[in-house]
Amino acid sequence: xxxxxxxxxxxxxxxxxxxxxxxxxxxxxxxxxxxxxxxxxxxxxxxxxxxxxxxxxxxxxxxxxxxxxxxxxxxxxxxxxxxxxxxxxxxxxxxxxxxxxxxxxxxxxxxxxxxxxxxxxxxxxxxxxxxxxxxxxxxxxxxxxxxxxxxxxxxxxxxxxxxxxxxxxxxxxxxxxxxxxxxxxxxxxxxxxxxxxxxxxxxxxxxxxxxxxxxxxxxxxxxxxxxxxxxxxxxxxxxxxxxxxxxxxxxxxxxxxxxxxxxxxx
Length: 266
Hints:
Largest sheet: 5 strands, antiparallel
Radius of gyration: 18 Å
CATH class of the largest domain: Alpha Beta
Strand order of the largest sheet: 3-6-1-14-9
Number of strands: 14
Low-confidence stretches: none
Order of helices and strands: EEEEEEEHHHHEEEEEHEE
Mean pLDDT: 94
CATH architecture of the largest domain: Roll
Structural class: alpha+beta
Number of domains: 2
Strand content: 35-45%
CATH topology of the largest domain: C8orf32 fold
Number of helices: 5
Shape: globular
């Protein structure tokens, strides 16, 4: 399936920004099951300072703000050919050793609520069934709700709130999967929805490393493994390592964010 994607992120600041620097993880890569046919990233009121691969082999564009600007816009668009591999990404590649994906982060630190969730997990016959059961268990404990809008809520806080979005589900899954002994990582990317073209945000899901299969994806929010509607862009130990846009700025005024995203079959 060939997907056409157009994604614009616009920032408006109440007062002009004297200095700002953004990391953009917005360039998908060709890999088994995913071929980038075309892709372009452009910025308005900013300048590309450098491009590099980070420790997770994500392509990162480092962009500075033009001094004195009150608006900053990032636009990317292109076409990706995607095949359905039932969520199986395959063997581990990149600069990071596999054992590092066992490590807890500030957003995926296990606490009593996650430990209780893991203890209540039904017994399954194999690793893959265990991880699918975990995904189902998390969605039952944390129903999807857009009332939670922060992308940096730790897994314990998500379970305490009792509802969340895709980032929240992913953080809980990562925490629990690592407790169960599976290396796990966060994935940011795009999902073509069946009922709409216009979307409010990009998507997130998890991958766990399963013996004999390698990395396997789990979209907890939609209770499936990624198929040909999914485009992988960046991975990390949690949201902070795979965030599409992150950075800093100097300025005392408020920030207003607007996202325009279209994902459709070409």
